[in-house]
Amino acid sequence: MDRIQRVSTVLAHVVTIGIILLIAGFSGVWWIDDLFDGMMAQTSLRTVEAATLPIYLRATGFIIAVVPLAIYIFSLLQVRALFRGYARDEVFTKEAAGRLRLIGGALVVSVPVGIVAGSLVSVVLTAANAVGERQLAISFGSQEFGALVFGGLLLVVGWVMGEAARIAEENRQFV
Amino acid sequence: MPIIVNLDVMLARRKMRSKELASIVGITEQNLSLLKSGKVKGVRFETLARICQALDCQPGDLLEYDSAGASDAE
């Protein structure tokens, strides 16, 4: 248990730093022109440039892209809360099991939301392009598949841990 | 609950305080209090053995089955 508490304490701090860097990085990539152009160059939206993209389209794309990010940050906050609970020796509890299910559910939900948001962003960012250069990009790859599988795994593990919490609670009532 | 715990009676006979018994047995005073009032789901054999050793008694001196309580529970 000591190992669980020590590692969980460290990981809770790592997640906190990760969330801050994620938000800062996301905002930077969208609003610092060089970083924005770099991001676009790595996607199929290579015709989109910060210098020529109307600010209202960039803002709309940003707002749409925030939605899957918000789901991801929500799941990271649950992960952090889970680690903090483990650090307090709250391992086999209903709350911990519930958090696992939330994380799994968020991962599963993030896949269709991410696909839809990504598609909408491609439409919005290329809306100002000339006819014939506008795009609708839809992607589903190994990353999405992995998120679905691991999200489902965490959901099931959350149910299993719920049972474990029930058994642990019953065990605590034995002297 | 058809099982009655007579731990209070044995503690009085042996003139021992709950706090002392809890310390000897290795359980918290809170758990011992729950045991005395019958508000636990069960007792481990190890705990029962330690209580019997501390109070120099038999399990039957501590636990009693009340058939009337059994029919109430049903």
Element-by-element helix/strand order of chain A: HHHHH
> What class would the helix/strand composition of chain A place it in?
mainly alpha
Total helical elements of chain A: 5
- The strands making up the biggest β-sheet of chain B line up spatially as 1-2
The best one-word shape of chain A is elongated
Strand elements of chain B, count? 2
Show the helix and strand layout:
The complex is a heterodimer of chains A (175) and B (74).
Chain A (H helix, E strand, L loop, with lengths): L1 H30 L1 H9 L13 H33 L6 H32 L16 H31 L3
Helix pairs in contact in A: 1-2, 1-3, 3-4, 4-5
Chain B lengths: L2 E3 L1 H7 L4 H8 L3 H8 L8 H11 L3 H4 E3 L1 H7 L1
Antiparallel strand pairs in B: 1-2
Helix pairs in contact in B: 2-3
Provide structural commentary:
The complex is a heterodimer of chains A (175) and B (74). The model of chain A has no long low-confidence stretch (mean pLDDT 93). Chain A is mainly α. In chain A, helix 1 (2-31) packs across helix 2 (33-41). The radius of gyration of chain A is 20 Å and the shape is elongated. Chain A has helices at residues 2-31, 33-41, 55-87, 94-125, 142-172. Chain B is built from 6 helices and 2 strands; from the N terminus they run E-H-H-H-H-H-E-H. In chain B, strands 1-2 form a two-stranded antiparallel sheet. The longest helix of chain B has 11 residues, at 45-55. The radius of gyration of chain B is 12 Å and the shape is globular. Chain B has 74 residues and is mostly helical. Chain B is 61% helix and 8% strand. Chain B has helices at 7-13, 18-25, 29-36, 45-55, 59-62, 67-73; strands at residues 3-5, 63-65. In chain B, helix 2 packs across helix 3 (29-36). Chain A binds chain B through residues 170, 173-175, and chain B through 27, 31-32, 34-35, 40-44, 47.
